[in-house]
Amino acid sequence: MNELDGLVDSARQRFAQAATPADLENAKAQFLGKSGRITELMKGLAALGVDEKKARGAVINQAKQAIEAALTARRQELAEAELQAHLKAEALDVTLPGRQRGIGGLHPVSLTLERIEAIFGSMGFEVAQGPEIESDWFNFTALNTPEDHPARSMHDTFYVEGGPVNAPNLLRTHTSPMQIRHAVQHVKKHRAALDAGRAMPEIRVIAPGRTYRVDSDATHSPMFHQCEGLWIGENVSFKDLKVVFTDFCRTFFESDDLVLRFRPSFFPFTEPSAEVDIQFQRGPLAGRWLEVAGSGEVHPNVVRNMGLDPERYIGFAFGMGPDRLTMLRYGVNDLRLFFDGDIRFLSQFQ
Ligand code: DAH
């Protein structure tokens, strides 16, 4: 113990009270500053004799060092506290699940369309696309659909502005107009060969796309998809239709024992016409006949509207519903789910 221990203690206490670095520097000045307590004591040495000065100086120095040590320790404490407060404020919980960016994917109907294109592509079919706003001629007249046919009634068709007054443009009600559009292009390309009486390469095409009808319930949507198929050559028969479409359905549904039924029907643009039903032999839909397409041998009037001689060129056409194929493939029972844009539904197909 010496007489300056009290001073050192009060410095320690004062430093401990300092809550911030600035406060601590003020406290330091009280003891070590120019007019601080230690400095004052040092000044007092001048009046002493040599021996006394030495002894007293040593005591003051000891006190000074103790105060400096206390200051350094408190500085470190405050710096550490500041760092901890900082870290706490900027706390980052690395155990929280990350916010993931959605990867996205193809719509189930797009998956079906890709599948249809791949399968028909492997059988040598081209893929054609055409306008969704269509003229009366391509949608109806060229397809041998007389003016009084029920398919033309306002009930089924969305009409739009434009076109002749008595035959306004419309949102195509099926993809069948692409039969005419594509065939006309094809014939144009091979006009020279045809005029010279030479053979024209066969027309083999599918045309997938959006179609529109005034209709809405669990199995009908005002916008839906169709995929048209057309094969025209010099000797393309109903038998070829059966082979091609059977092959397609079995490949599409990955089911070799799938059974097809071509049920006689009527379409203005085919003769004979058939509706195609499929029947699964296993699974939840087994045993039921499910309609998937319309089809038939292309009507001579339609072949003529393609710019071809129906005595020489013949073939088959079909039109199927990719939405329905998607429902059957994935077991979806409400068509509207496809077009509601609900990610919870759509993400199940990725
Ligand atoms: N276009 C018909 C429809 O929408 C489907 C169809 C039937 C297309 C027979 C064809 C066909 O090409 O030959 O109901």
Question: How many domains is the backbone divided into?
Answer: 2
Major sheet description: 7 strands, mixed
* Number of discrete helical segments: 12
Strand numbers in spatial order across the main sheet: 1-4-5-9-8-7-6
Q: Can you write the helix and strand succession as a string?
A: HHHHHEEHEHHEEHEEEHEHH
Ligands, deduplicated: 3,4-dihydroxyphenylalanine
Shape field: rod-shaped
Low-confidence stretches: none
Under the CATH scheme, which architecture of the largest domain would be assigned? 2-Layer Sandwich
Mean model confidence by pLDDT: 93
CATH class identity of the largest domain: Alpha Beta
Distance from N terminus to C terminus (CA atoms, Å) equals 82 Å
Structural class, from helix and strand content? alpha+beta
Q: What's the Cα radius of gyration?
A: 45 Å
- Tell me the CATH topology of the largest domain: BirA Bifunctional Protein, domain 2
CATH homologous group name of the largest domain = Bira Bifunctional Protein, Domain 2
Number of strands: 9
Tell me the strand percentage band: 15-25%
Helix percent reads 40-55%
